């Protein structure tokens, strides 16, 4: 097969590789268009800032999830970890402003450690991450309930700056999430470890044979996922003022959708965090629009599902060769 | 450079190696021969650090060596290029070459430009002109191998192990490879070369070691052995002629299959060929010429974009594997492990595969009948296994191939297509497969054999069709088919 | 079905015996667990092994077992079905959506099956024709069903389950629960389908590699789609039965069953990569999950600890039975 080295072929390859990113952008544009046509309050700065702000929690957890999925694994313990960290945070701070920083640091460290533990189990027991994190999720939920059976603790009033504060007129939380996303994107591209994440996801066996530091890679991605969960937990406490033991339940499956919408394959080796972030924005936009259109909450779910189906059926993979 | 003494290794139920000695000197190309299952892969994995030997000692570069991981072995200068490439399909060529040892700039971050640049350099030194940005998945198998070898080259290598490097390349690329190997050797590198192609062993190796059934048969200078001696060392018996004799009468009865200006999905264009009963037709050409695509198209696995197939007196402008099977066709694919065999199933299931309806009564599978059929075939083709319920994954390449051939031979009435039927198959099984092919032809089938091994083409074919870039460039009768004439048609598109 | 057997033993006969024993344990060990766990429970509290407790256990195992059968098929063809729990809940909701009398049973069953076939088709088509990952496809249908459910009930489910379902769901005959009998019937039927029929053989071939299947003349896509349809239908049946057991109607009947059924299958030896699995294994997995859940109750442990133990068991069982090579 002749190697085409000209720019045209490379451009074509870029298009194919990034087809999902483009797809998401197209969908975002479509939603905006529909919104602009149906309601006048949708297409405005104020509303977009709203959407931006409301995407923070999903964004924080989905970035970590992207990393684990890139290695061909997954983290199903995110929901419980978010619940745990949010309860611990508000429970330990308990309204004392002096405790805020140390507890926050502790919680972030704890989240990371849980992630590292996940990785250790995956490597040491040689069990698929799906099962390890599923089991760990159950364990974490139990631990959370041991600590608190209902809303627990409280935070000092100015803690909610994390959720409602602004930096340069932009919502603080969402901007932190976006910047974290950029940071991770850079890591993935410019750190040797980042490239190795893709390799491990692409072909774990080849990674083993070529002697790649799989342990280091898995520790990193699951550690990041844990960190992201803790950050989400903190954010949720800031938003609601209190931690709750079931607050994270929906995030497990919810964190996977934007990752896949954004073009990261569940099998690993392909994709990135930028796509995930766009996926998060898309999902938030759709929710927002449906709210505007006064669609009953019940039908919103149907609409969401239909959009997901639509989005993924458009990405037809042509590599249907026999 | 490398010295192995008394190496033994066993897995549950199988003694893979026992008491093997091997010595490879710096500045030599050492061939490692043996049938499939002789223990070569296990030995290589031990040398590479992927396995640990149960017993025995390994001394590398003067110091005792007991690698705890492939990474450690690599650090000491052992590089292995596996037969089943350890490549990352979605990463680029450059990234594959440097994975794990990414090129960085002074800040410690990955320098993509430098990676691409150095990748191009290495590839150029190998004589391969590949775009470092291309994804490995988009490359031909031969190019992928170049990437693998390039990867081994970029590190300080003291011992280079090549596992069946010429299984997927031919002609010019092989010559280039050998040049490079010789240059490495002259530079003091030790090379272990595993291959089933004895011609190549004689062409480039200095010494040879033969393994059989996990044991060492012997080591010798290349000058001290000949082809027959090596074969008998590997197989344990004299093989006689590798290729069965052709029928004296001019081959070819009735035309069984004919194509008219057939085009397949952009890879095959305007091909008009004819296959006759009792004939073995070889389809030759360089890798990428479109031969496999033609085979897949004839079988209905790739869509027909133009022209027609004539079979059984009928005209077809579209085909599917189910229909092809109904029409009495069979296809032995190029890659038996990935799409030829149902790797998780047993011999019986694999043999009855396309003929499942035959052993089905009232929606249920009649296992007794299935096993009986399998036993018959096992006996007929001398397939080495414990019985019809042996899992195919545990069998050697040659025996796996026999299972596939048996599967199709049973039900083919018209055409049997074989794509690289003896790839990765040891000498003993090769001879048997050739014999089976000739028998099937004598039975009245039309056989289409795709092969990149010219000795095989010249030895087996009654007629040779040559392809290049999706088109047929010429046809040669057996008497005119020589390696040169075929290569000429394959590379230039016209007759010598 | 043919599981990969250990390579032949050569030479040392003793080694052969040990290897054979180990092989047996690997293949059948899973079936020793449920009785072992039962005995453990009995050791702690003799009432655990009493007839009424065992029969209650069977009552709880049945719905999970039925769903696990369907999940088994889907996992063998390299898929996952996350929509089963939602399908169960939808079936339960439909069951209460009619008049509540036995006359409606036929219509209820018809409606549920029709819905299940529809969902299964969507899942199957998305996965085969659109190359969507099974995770996402079934996640989407899961949400879709959820939306349908909420819209149908306007968020406030009401109505009664016909008495027939109550009987089937929670009634017993001579100590043996009806729903367990249903499970046995279904399990036998599908054991035959998966391990003895031509269709089942095709399922294994396609699961190993759909391309290989196609080259053997099998319509791989069709086989895959049928598996998803089976899974949804079985989930629907399980939902109807569970609604009979639970009694009240609820939008969340069957919650957690999607992950539980996957875990049951994995523990039972169904490979996440496809091509490998057995009905009996899946059922054993379901039994293990339920017995442990119940046993934990025995210890009088609070629910938090129960959940922790469940999680730990999942990981340990997988480490023992589902190691990646």
Could you please describe the fold and organization of this structure?
The complex is a heterotrimer of chains A (322), B (496) and C (325). Chain A is built from 16 helices and 2 strands. A two-stranded antiparallel sheet of chain A has the order 1-2. The longest helix of chain A is centred in the C-terminal third of the chain and has 27 residues, at 214-240. Chain A has one domain. Chain A is globular. In chain A, helix 5 packs across helix 12. Chain A has 322 residues and is mostly helical. Chain B has 2 domains: 2-235, Rossmann fold, CATH 3.40.50; 255-492, Rossmann fold, CATH 3.40.50.300. Chain B contains 17 helices and 23 strands. In chain B, the strands form 5 sheets. A 6-stranded mixed sheet of chain B has the order 6-7-8-3-9-10, sandwiched between helices. In chain B, strands 17-20-21-14-22-23 form a 6-stranded mixed sheet, with helices on both faces. In chain B, a hairpin with a 2-residue loop joins strand 9 (207-212) and strand 10 (215-221). The two termini of chain B are 46 Å apart. By secondary structure, chain C is mostly helical. Chain C has 13 helices and 2 strands, in the order ααααααββααααααα. In chain C, a hairpin with a 2-residue loop joins strand 1 and strand 2 (176-177). In chain C, helix 12 packs antiparallel against helix 13. Chain C starts with 12 loop residues before the first helix and ends with a helix. Chains in contact: A-B, A-C, B-C.
Distinctive features:
A: mainly alpha; two-stranded antiparallel ribbon; 16 helices; 2 strands; globular; disordered C terminus; C: 325 residues; mainly alpha; 1% strand
- Helix and strand element order of chain C: HHHHHHEEHHHHHHH
Quantity of strands of chain B, as a count? 23
What is the gyration radius of chain B calculated from CA atoms? Answer: 24 Å
Number of strands of chain C: 2
Estimate the global geometry of chain C from the Cα principal axes: globular
Rg result of chain C: 20 Å
Secondary structure tally, helices of chain C: 13
Could you give the order of strands across the largest sheet of chain C?
Answer: 1-2
